Amino acid sequence: MKADDGHFARLLADLPEPLSQDLLFIWDLQSRCKRVAVKKGDYLLRAGEVCQNAYFINKGLFINQYINDKGNECVTGFSSDDQYPFLFVLSYFTKSPSEFEIKAIEDGELICISRQDIEELSLHYPPFAAYCQNAMLVIISKLYTLFAIRQSCTAEEFMSHLYNHYAWLVNRIPDKYIACYMGISKEWYCKLKKRVFKLN
Description:
Elements: H1 6-14, H2 17-20, H3 23-32, E1 34-38, E2 43-45, E3 53-59, E4 61-67, E5 73-80, E6 86-87, H4 91-94, E7 100-104, E8 108-114, H5 115-124, H6 126-152, H7 155-165, H8 167-172, H9 175-182, H10 186-199
Antiparallel strand pairs: 1-8, 2-7, 3-6, 3-8, 4-5, 4-7
Helix pairs in contact: 5-6, 7-10, 9-10
């Protein structure tokens, strides 16, 4: 992967300027990254697997989901090339089998880098360590914030919040996944969506 090709350019643009201008760092980073192409419905991680990698989304839309002992699915988060382009689950930190899965809901392309390579780069380039820490904190903060808002609102209030603050999510993600995230039926979600759209 070359630093000036289209597959690497989005990640390069996301890096702090001192890192993006450091040719030695760029060479070191690109030598450790690999491109991953996925199809809609593919899994980056299955429940029971240990999350060994972090991903940067060049293209596509992904969900995190939890599946209980009865096989019921619960969507716990969303990531896309436009918003929250980093992907990982808590198993990345605990190094234990994951209870969560990462699933593509669009065809996509990602840049994959292993936990070991991230740790080695972080030791050699402190600004990269800070960058990775911040990216991961943003993801965790997003998950907790949306969960707290959902728990403190009615379904209609939460739908209005999504419409006003997460339009990309409402417009791009299939209704069934947002309904699952909210813990309501797809039919009820569609009724709420029409009602909220009329009010805004």
